[in-house]
């Protein structure tokens, strides 16, 4: 009998599976409630919600814009709107050891004046798995009754906490073309891993399904798994000078964050009436 089998025979029955849970907070001063998905091992986040300011942190949903032509209006209205909490039977039923929540943002007449005359349904399912994996699936449907198509861009604007930006590496980008938004040029990534020593704002094009964020101090790898609907990866850190210009960004916080965003932002997605687009990203973390 091998040592491995001997130890498993004395280990007793396996520990019961601890399931992620979901709960609702009380109503806030705008009448809204928050939904908290938690996993027994931890994993919580905090964010301040002061509409119409977007939340700095977490995973804001960028829709229907990412940049406009003049770079003036960034990231669209979806991230600052109040979404409806719903139960969406059109999503596949999740397995019992996952906690999930469904949200809906739809069109009311005269809403969203910077994207007028478009009726849409924007649906989001967030699933927390037993090992802390976080899966987000978005569905965008054109429900225009005037026969018109519409076009949009999209991103999961994910903020990640890292121990030290100087000890952070992004893996999976070598050989890819990227647009550099700091000097409006296009380059090809030559480095085997992306490191940080100054402000960086780039969109990598035609990226693979998995991109990893390696935290050398924490000895942790976060993997972003994404589907083909999200061909780009945006990487952003404002560094010292730019962070100082952003009012809700702590002066030193650029040292402990990185945005790595699965996106469809390089070209627009066009939907005809009744067509639907879906995009999934899953985040998982592993220590090594
Ligand atoms: O996604 C990267 C980026 O567009 C950067 O250019 C930077 O401006 C950042 O997002 C912050 O955007 P926000 O609108 O959240 O302040």
Secondary structure layout:
Blueprint: H1 3-10, E1 21-24, E2 35-38, E3 61-62, E4 84-86, E5 99-106, E6 120-128, E7 134-142, E8 150-156, E9 159-161, E10 168-171, E11 177-180, E12 185-188, E13 193-194, E14 200-204, E15 210-215, E16 220-226, E17 232-237, H2 239-245, E18 257-271, E19 276-287
Antiparallel strand pairs: 1-2, 3-8, 4-5, 5-6, 6-7, 7-19, 8-18, 9-18, 10-13, 10-15, 11-12, 11-14, 14-17, 15-16, 16-19, 17-18
Bound molecules: 6-O-phosphono-beta-D-tagatofuranose.
Biased composition (Polar residues): 1-11
GO molecular function: carbohydrate binding; glucose-6-phosphate 1-epimerase activity
Active site: 157, 261
Describe the structure concisely.
It catalyses: alpha-D-glucose 6-phosphate = beta-D-glucose 6-phosphate. With 288 residues, this protein is mainly beta.
Bound molecule types: 6-O-phosphono-beta-D-tagatofuranose
Strand order of the largest sheet: 4-5-6-7-19-16-15-10-13
CATH C-level label: Mainly Beta
Shape: globular
Could you list the spans in which at least 5 consecutive residues all have pLDDT below 50? 1-10
Q: What is the string of SSEs from the N terminus onward?
A: HEEEEEEEEEEEEEEEEEHEE
What is the CATH architecture term? Distorted Sandwich
Number of helices: 2
- What's the overall average pLDDT, rounded? 85
- In total, how many domains does the architecture comprise? 1
Question: How would you sum up the major sheet?
Answer: 9 strands, antiparallel
Using the coordinates shown, work out and report the CATH topology: Beta-galactosidase, Chain A, domain 5
Q: Beta fraction of the residues?
A: 35-45%
Q: Kindly provide the radius of gyration, computed on alpha-carbon positions and rounded to a whole number of angstroms.
A: 21 Å
* Alpha-beta classification: mainly beta
Could you tell me the number of beta strands? Answer: 19
Percent of residues in helical segments? under 10%
Q: For the terminal residues, how far apart are their CA atoms? A: 29 Å
């Amino acid at each position: 009998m091998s040592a491995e089998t001997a130890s498993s025979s004395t280990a007793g029955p396996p520990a019961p599976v601890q399931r992620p849970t979901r709960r609702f907070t009380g109503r806030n001063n705008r009448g809204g409630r928050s939904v908290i998905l938690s996993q027994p091992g931890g994993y919580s986040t905090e964010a301040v919600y002061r509409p119409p300011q977007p939340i700095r942190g977490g995973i804001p949903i960028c829709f229907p814009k990412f940049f406009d032509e003049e770079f003036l209006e960034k990231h669209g209205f979806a991230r600052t709107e109040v979404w409806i909490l719903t139960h969406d039977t059109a999503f596949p039923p999740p397995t019992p050891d996952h906690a999930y929540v469904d949200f809906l943002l739809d069109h009311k007449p005269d809403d969203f004046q910077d994207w007028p005359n478009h009726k849409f349904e924007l649906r989001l399912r967030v699933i927390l798995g037993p090992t802390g994996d976080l899966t987000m699936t978005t569905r965008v449907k054109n429900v225009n009754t005037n026969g018109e198509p519409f076009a949009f861009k999209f991103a999961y604007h994910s903020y990640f906490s890292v121990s030290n930006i100087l000890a952070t590496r992004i893996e999976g980008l070598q050989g890819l073309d990227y647009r550099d938004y700091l000097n409006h040029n296009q380059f090809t990534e030559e480095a085997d891993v992306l490191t940080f020593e100054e402000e960086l704002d780039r969109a990598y094009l035609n990226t693979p399904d998995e991109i990893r964020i390696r935290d050398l101090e924490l000895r942790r790898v976060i993997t972003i798994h994404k589907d083909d609907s999200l061909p780009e990866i945006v990487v952003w850190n404002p560094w010292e000078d730019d962070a100082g210009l952003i009012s809700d960004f702590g002066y030193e916080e650029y040292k402990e964050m990185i945005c790595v965003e699965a996106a469809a932002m390089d070209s627009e997605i066009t939907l005809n009436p009744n067509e639907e687009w879906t995009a999934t990203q899953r985040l998982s973390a592993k220590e090594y």
